[in-house]
Amino acid sequence: MSLRNRLLKLLDDGDFHSGETLGEALGISRMAVWKHIKALRTTGVPLEIARGKGYRLQNALELLDRNSILAAVAAPTRDRLGGVEVCLVVDSTNNRLREQVHSGLSSGTVCLAEMQHAGRGRRGRRWVSPFGANLYLSLLWRSPVGVAALGGLSLVSGIALMRSLRSFGVTGVGLKWPNDIMASGAKLGGILIDVLGESTGPCVAIIGVGINVAMPQTAGTTIEQPWTDLLTLTGRRRLSRNRLAALLLDELLPLLAAFETDGMQPYLEEWKRYDMVDGQAVELHLPGRIIAGMACGIDAGGALLVDTGDGPRRFASGEVTLRPTA
Ligand code: BTN
């Protein structure tokens, strides 16, 4: 564990610690502690400094911890996992895995971060990713089938996320095609998949999951759409992101393996239960045009079906919004 990680671990109880006690615990001088605190604050870590008291981590959440995640996952998940890396600050966990694909990372490698300074959402949007507040997790998946056969991958990943939220005790959430996690009309989380490789040969998918857990209001005001977080939805005061990450991996890894052999078909019924737009008047935003119609589920490949008046038409991409009722 890096020195800065160890320093944050000492501070993650939310209490004040003096430079002297921190220095002693880490085997460094008070001045060196001060320099590390300053550097962490510059990257956006919410550290408070109080004269005569020392330093403390504001809104202390349990920090992400590789060992806690590994201890919490089910045994079969542990066998399917590649490496698990927990970073303090990255540009994007998807980018971090992407940069290392050619160094031979094994399938099932996971990267999590406390903060992303260039978190990416779908359609080129940014994903607001403040320190220690939410879950930012990416999983690298090597698939022998080509990009062309991965049509339903993002939907199946959404199903895994719904299952893990249910095990975490979250109710009242649903999916907006293809994989927005929604609650009461507000966005709780999303999935961004980067695929590298041939359309028919082996490929690599990087599945990036973002879930708002305890979004600070200050960061939330910069989000350009209605949003919610798990603290609000559950009414709890503290939630374990390590447990949530473990539950997500427990669902995602076996589902990916099954999807690779069986495709989307076995999940169509389950998708229907989570589908928040089925039977609703929608607009589908495509580059340069908007399609209006009634959403009528998905086809066996995971494409959205929209009835525009002359029967269902299938769409493999686009952004769905609900049409305001008159
Ligand atoms: C969306 O727009 O709904 C997708 C959001 C995906 C965000 C996650 S956070 C972890 C991973 N790293 C990123 O940069 N993006 C994804």
Describe the structure.
The chain has three domains: 3-57, Arc Repressor Mutant, subunit A (Orthogonal Bundle); 66-272, BirA Bifunctional Protein, domain 2 (2-Layer Sandwich), CATH 3.30.930; 277-322, Roll (SH3 type barrels). The mean pLDDT is 92. The termini are far apart. It is globular, with a radius of gyration of 21 Å. The strands form three sheets. Strands 3-4-5-9-8-7-6 form a seven-stranded mixed sheet, sandwiched between helices. A five-stranded antiparallel sheet has the order 13-12-11-10-14, with no helix packed on it. Strands 1-2 form a two-stranded antiparallel ribbon. 32% of the residues lie in helices and 27% in strands. It is of the alpha+beta class and 326 residues long. The structure holds biotin. Residues 92-94, 116, 119-122, 125, 127, 136-138, 180, 190-192, 208-210 line the site of biotin (BTN).
Question: What descriptors fit this protein?
Answer:
326 residues, alpha+beta, Arc Repressor Mutant, subunit A, BirA Bifunctional Protein, domain 2, SH3 type barrels, 3 domains, 7-stranded mixed beta sheet, 5-stranded antiparallel beta sheet, 11 helices, 14 strands, 32% helix, 27% strand, binds biotin
